[in-house]
């Protein structure tokens, strides 16, 4: 039980680091769901209650919710090395950029 708490705490720290530094870090991990195992590259943007977080799954190009207990071999990856799903566009609103 204590190792599970430490593991989740470590995962949360890494997710928070990526959320606070989106230009620098993206998450890369193995995700084990009830029916499959997949490798995910995710740009996280919010921790949620219940040991979950929201992020943009870059391979599926969709917002997803991820459970911390299903994440394995999490690593922070330099965002500059990750190909984003689509070009980021700056919007100009009322002449302000």
How is this fold's topology laid out?
Layout: H1 2-20, E1 25-32, E2 37-48, E3 52-57, E4 62-67, E5 71-78
Antiparallel strand pairs: 1-2, 1-5, 2-3, 3-4
What tags apply to this protein structure?
97 residues; alpha+beta; 5 strands
Number of domains: 1
Instruction: Report the portion of residues in β strands.
Output: 35-45%
In spatial order, strands of the major sheet run: 4-3-2-1-5
Straight-line distance between termini: 49 Å
Average pLDDT reading: 85
Helical proportion? Answer: 10-25%
Rg: 15 Å
Unreliable stretches covering 5 or more consecutive residues: 86-92
Main beta sheet strand tally, sense and closure:
5 strands, antiparallel
Top CATH class: Mainly Beta
Q: Might you state the CATH topology name? A: SH3 type barrels
The arrangement of helices and strands along the chain is HEEEEE
- By secondary-structure content and strand pairing, the structural class works out as alpha+beta
Which architecture would the CATH scheme give at its second level?
Roll
Summarize it.
This protein has 97 residues and is of the alpha+beta class. It has one helix at residues 2-20, and strands at 25-32, 37-48, 52-57, 62-67, 71-78.
Question: What does the model show?
Answer:
The protein has 97 residues and is α+β, with helices and mostly antiparallel strands. It has a single domain (2-81), classed as Roll (SH3 type barrels), CATH 2.30.30. The protein is built from 1 helix and 5 strands. It has one helix at 2-20; strands spanning 25-32, 37-48, 52-57, 62-67, 71-78. A 5-stranded antiparallel sheet has the order 4-3-2-1-5. The protein is globular.
């Amino acid at each position: 039980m204590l190792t599970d708490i430490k593991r989740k705490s470590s995962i949360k720290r890494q997710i928070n680091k990526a959320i606070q530094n989106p230009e620098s870090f993206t998450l890369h991990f193995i995700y084990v769901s009830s029916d499959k195992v997949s490798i995910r590259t995710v740009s996280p943007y919010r921790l949620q209650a219940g040991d979950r977080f929201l992020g943009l799954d870059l391979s599926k190009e969709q917002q997803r919710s991820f459970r911390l207990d299903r994440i394995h071999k999490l690593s922070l990856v330099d965002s500059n090395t990750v190909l984003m799903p689509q070009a980021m566009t700056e919007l100009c609103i009322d002449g302000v950029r």
